[in-house]
Known about the structure:
The chain is α+β, with helices and mostly antiparallel strands. The protein folds into 2 domains: 2-54 and 280-413, no CATH class; 85-269, no CATH class. It is 53% helix and 17% strand. The strands form 2 sheets. Strands 1, 2, 3, 4, 5, 6, 7, 8, 9, 12, 13 and 14 form a 12-stranded mixed β-sheet that branches. It has a two-stranded antiparallel ribbon with strand order 10-11. A hairpin with a 2-residue loop joins β8 and β9. α8 runs antiparallel to α10. The longest helix has 44 residues, at 275-318. The chain is elongated, with a radius of gyration of 32 Å.
Amino acid sequence: MFELLRENISIAFNSIRSQLLRTILTVLIIAIGITALVGILSAVSALENTISSDFASMGANTFNIQRYDFSSKREGGGEIEKINPVINYREVRKFEDNYKYPQAKTAVSFTGTSGAEVKYRNEKTDPEVRVLGVNENFLENSGLKVENGREFNVFDIQNNNNVVILGADFAKAEGLFQNSNPLDKTISIRGAKFKVIGILESKGSTFGNNQDLRVLMPIQLARSIFTQPKINYNLSVKVDDKTLLEGAQDEAIITFRNIRKLNPIEENNFGLERSDDLINRIFSITSYLNYAAWIISIITIFGSSIALMNIMLVSVTERTREIGVRKALGAKRKTIATQFFMETLIIGQIGGIVGIIFGVLIGLGVSAAADFNFTTPWVAIIWATAITIIVAVLAGSYPAAKAAKQDPIESLRYE
């Protein structure tokens, strides 16, 4: 049995080599469909991994009060976006003073600039450093950790100590400090001097935004340096016990509505978002990309299965005399069918392997270009392998059955 199977495989490869051009074209058609499937699923998976890693550290027990919800609000049926007022410093201070929910910690922050220049002795960075003013709860609520040094404490914030925490890029050998440890060094930003007390763990880049090239400083110091009008502040609340999250959100909404003096019939003029709600919303968007990948690949694979069936039918017609000779020498119908079915299966698997390789390379390239966290898309690879087998079975069954049913006498007469 195994000897017969080996012989059929050998005949199949010989036949494939004898029809090399048609085989290559068919393999490419199959590979295009598999490449579309694996490539898009790989890129989407990398995007989801990046989003998950960025937000997972924040946990499901964190929510933000911000100027807008992530979903746009429209007035009536028109295209006019509802304009909410910025969250100013007076409001965040009132929120800190009035919001006293059990086990809740409030973080306040704002972005002073995204184009700061940081100096150390005779060295300086490009003017692309992001500077944030934060309070003592910002690191914990944002899921940030200090790799070297220490975090801000309440005394740093209340006493406006001239201290900063730097992103991971500042500790690189080719960076500002040139192979020396940044801790306890004195840097200057816009003429003000600060002592470095900590270096953050690396967070990488998200959507082209470098999370490791930033400086954190006490919020009052940041307000004295960056005095642009209409600064929008961010409020983040973390509850230690997740079961208290719903109550904490309700209390936060009531507190902020009172701060803004909204009457009971007025809608909120601010947004509230949970970190896991944002992840779910983004994942719901990426699911459409998954559907698109399947639709594109199914259409292409359907065309490739027709092409594969066509090439096998042509092959059966061209080898009619060979089939007759083999039957005259004692080959059974099952043996003939297996031979042609094996050819179809081999062509399909070659196309699948080529498509998987190109698809993974495309996903890897997109991930590298967009700074996504790429992982090998095993689910997509398994699906691609299964699809190529199904295509081979569907496309090869009819030609194999047609070859097996041919009359040996009529086949020997064929020219």
